[in-house]
Design goal:
Alpha-Beta Plaits, alpha+beta, globular, about 575 residues
């Protein structure tokens, strides 16, 4: 008798995409009456504890999954009643007129969410709903990480749930395996089948939740400018939630030229601005965290969204739309579409790769890929013209502080009488997708680093020091907890790190992994008079920034075991 543990559907990651898939699937199974088995593996100690996002979302997919979501307890922090896109100088803020930015950035009517709470709620909803569908068996395993993809005869057969799998008990198999993770393990599927010609590029989101004295519920700000005045792509956000809570965060692209660009410190700089200070003075920090965001868009999508025995969803697929600041609805739509395709295939008893082809076709015919294609050059518009963020934006930011934004734009025009109009027209055509320049090719994020980079200097705003937190202090608010003996970051070659340390310290800097870490994990140790790379793994918030910015591609962050890691519930 075989001890092989096999399900019809094996869902890797307790993500919004996988939970949406499972919820929609049992609805279809209830109609068909067929018997199915489903397992969901979540590496966090509970569903939601490793999930972090902004998050302001178009509720259209939520409404499709939960038609009565407004009445059934779906966790909404607020409905956006006021939406702003603002440019920050060092001291002042300018709210842009709506005609100056894409309509998609107007979030009026969208819902403000705490994604960890949404995922937790969806997991409970799924279990309750499954009670009414006895022909479906659903097992939710929290604290169980997928450590390795199992390939059998060129097909994804399942995953290993132990780092050193030794028996069948260490494996879980599925007729179909669905990857909804942030790349911790799905990247191995992409690499095995050589699905991606263009690398994925990444940003990191850093976020805090504050208890404040005033009620900002329903107000949403997205900002650019200070403290990113060095050409780095990114911006800040402030979302007003219920119970006088504020979400304050930044999304910063990891293709920055600055080797010592620390996202957590940038968030602290952001909070120093008078705009933020006015809201958080006298308040209390509740939570902190960081997470990667795939921002390559259309041209970083895998050539196929499915392989023999498996499909990719959400962040594993890379459907985040940077221009629209939209990822949650895209991820849930992936799950919704996948459920129908997988249900049809299992009912027919067809587990072939061809049975999964409708998944990609339906996504391509729907809003997820159509909008990704429309916005395919959004990131490229800024990458291909460094003047936009490295020259024009800082000049406008300075004018906001001294006079006003209009004067700044006039100055940009006078200083660049020929270039500025051309840059404006060209960039706008790329941003809006009205100009076709063919496929684009990205370079890995770390390749953009300039070791000798000199960070521009600017005056620091006045601020209340009690509102600013160091990295070690911030870790406390991420509630990290790891089991004894945890080792979840691989350093492939210690000597490579020694050489990297020497190179950067010779330039008066530290290595990107140490400088850019969001949680004080990486450090420099002196051992036998040699400066070596060390790690305080107990601090890690599992953001993978170190892996992305490592110039030598010498680090890999792996899934943790036994629910270890940060606790992002409520973040």
């Amino acid at each position: 008798m075989s001890d092989r543990i096999e399900y019809d559907l094996l869902l890797v990651g307790g993500s919004p995409s996988n939970l949406a898939l499972a919820i929609r699937f049992i609805e279809l199974a209830k109609e068909s009456g067929k018997e199915f088995t489903i397992a969901i593996l979540e590496k966090g100690k509970e569903f939601g504890s490793h999930v972090m996002s902004g998050a302001v979302s178009n509720p259209h997919v939520i409404a499709k999954l939960f038609p009565d979501y407004k009445e059934n307890g779906f966790p909404i922090e607020a409905t956006c009643t006021e939406s702003f896109v603002s440019v920050l100088g060092v001291k002042k803020k300018w709210d842009m007129p709506a005609k100056f930015y894409p309509k998609s950035l107007d979030k009026t009517g969208y819902v403000v969410l705490t994604l960890s709470n949404v995922v937790s709620w969806m997991s409970r909803y799924l279990q309750d709903k499954a009670k009414d569908v006895p022909n479906v068996t659903i097992d939710l395993f929290n604290g169980f990480a997928a450590h390795k993809v199992v390939f059998e005869d060129g097909r994804v057969a399942g995953v290993a749930v132990s780092e050193e799998a030794k028996s069948e008990e260490d494996y879980v198999y599925g007729k179909f395996t669905c990857f909804g993770d942030k790349g911790f393990i799905s990247r191995d599927v992409i690499d095995f089948y050589k699905l991606r010609d263009n690398p994925q590029i990444w940003s990191v989101g850093v976020k805090e939740v504050w208890q404040v004295n005033e009620d900002y519920q329903g107000k949403v700000w997205h900002t650019l400018g200070y403290p990113l005045l060095d050409g780095t792509f990114g911006g800040g956000f402030v979302y007003g939630m219920k119970d006088k809570k504020l979400t304050i965060g930044m999304v910063i692209s990891l293709d920055s030229q600055d080797p010592n660009m620390n996202p957590q410190q940038k968030l602290q700089d952001y909070k120093k601005h008078a705009f933020i200070q006015d809201m958080i003075k006298g308040g209390k920090l509740l939570k902190y965290g960081a997470a990667l965001l795939p921002e390559g868009g259309y041209y970083s999508l895998p050539k196929k969204f499915y392989v023999p025995g498996a499909i990719l969803l959400g962040d594993a697929l890379g459907v985040l739309d940077v221009k629209n600041l939209a990822g949650i609805d895209r991820a849930m739509e992936c799950g919704y579409v996948a459920a129908g395709v997988l249900h049809d295939a299992l009912v027919k008893g067809d587990t072939s790769e061809a049975a999964l082809a409708p998944y990609q076709k339906q996504l391509e015919d729907g809003f997820v890929i159509k909008e990704a294609y429309k916005n395919r050059y959004f990131r490229w518009a800024f990458m291909s013209n460094p003047k936009l963020l490295g020259q024009y934006l800082p000049d406008i930011a300075k004018s906001i502080d001294k006079t006003n934004a209009w004067v700044g734009m006039l100055k940009v025009g006078f200083k660049n009488p020929f270039a500025a109009p051309v840059d404006g027209v060209t960039s706008l055509s790329l941003i809006e997708g009205t100009r076709d320049i063919g496929p684009i090719k990205y370079k890995p994020d770390a390749s953009h680093i300039i070791p000798s980079w000199v960070t521009p200097k600017y005056d620091e705003p006045q601020y209340d020091k009690s509102t600013i937190y160091s990295r070690p202090d911030a870790v406390f608010f991420a509630s990290t907890k790891y089991h004894e003996g945890n080792e979840h970051i691989d350093e492939f070659n210690a000597q490579t790190c020694v050489k990297c340390i020497s190179t950067y310290e010779g330039l008066g800097k530290t290595t990107p992994c140490v400088a850019d870490c969001t949680a004080e994990v990486h450090r420099i140790d002196i051992i036998d008079d040699l400066r070596k790379h060390g790690m305080s793994l107990e601090n890690c918030v599992h953001c993978r920034t170190c892996e992305i910015v490592c110039p030598e591609v010498n680090l890999r962050v792996k899934p943790t075991s036994q629910g270890s890691g940060p606790d992002f519930m409520g973040l």
